[in-house]
């Protein structure tokens, strides 16, 4: 009984490696088409495509499940599919193409944070607990019946990259538990609750702008959830844009919102409530650097934000 694996980014690639090493009978890989990467926009295979090639697994690259793709899946005699961040919405007739169906690994405790950016939205909202859910894909947006789930505590100072990597490991462990159940037909499906439904839409650059009228705690969560993409950012008045990759909130310092200076050896910015310590930043056109190194090259009086 063979399995199709569908995924695209680094998190999915790491999961594919782990599943194959643990003996999962994956015989076909589905991933998105090569895409332009970097400043030179060089067409590059997805991380999943690169891993599949290294593992000697056949790969289908597609951004839609066409009739030809379904025929290729049938020829491979696939029983069911595992999906981790494929980036393609599955619809009929693709949903009915596999005898046992398609199963998705989603990085939240459904029905909370359905959608494309559950890890980022969870961090931005200030959640302290999240988790991983395996569910059977249906025609809705992450609305299918739940196979299994596992909660996970969100660690202080964890950003989206760190949390996603950790949840990816949990997702593999959960899949290794449920794959035999799917193979045997003994899975128990539970409908999702109709309560506490929330949507995790992709974070836009506009949403990631730091508004220093807000509390420092709110802005710290925004920095954590936006790292690395799209990247929290602000305007340095008279200078240009500044990305903020790491920051910590502090209860109180006598600073006006947007006022930035060194306090007790820390680069602090005043907020509507408390102050935000900048730790790692990236000025426009430059590489990432410590906030202290950035501030040393600026005038004595520095104001941040479009709202000050």
UniProtKB/TrEMBL annotation:
InterPro entries hit by this protein: Fmt, Formyl_trans_C, Formyl_transf_N, Formyl_transf_N_sf, Formyl_transferase-like_C_sf, Met-tRNA-FMT_C, Met-tRNA-FMT_N
EC number per UniProt: 2.1.2.9
Primary enzyme class: transferase
Domain Formyl transferase C-terminal: 202-298
Keyword Iron-sulfur attached: no
Pfam family, one: Formyl_trans_C
Entry keywords, A to Z: Protein biosynthesis, Transferase
CDD domains for the chain: FMT_core_Met-tRNA-FMT_N, Met_tRNA_FMT_C
Membership in a protein family: Belongs to the Fmt family.
Entry protein name: methionyl-tRNA formyltransferase
Natural source organism: freshwater metagenome
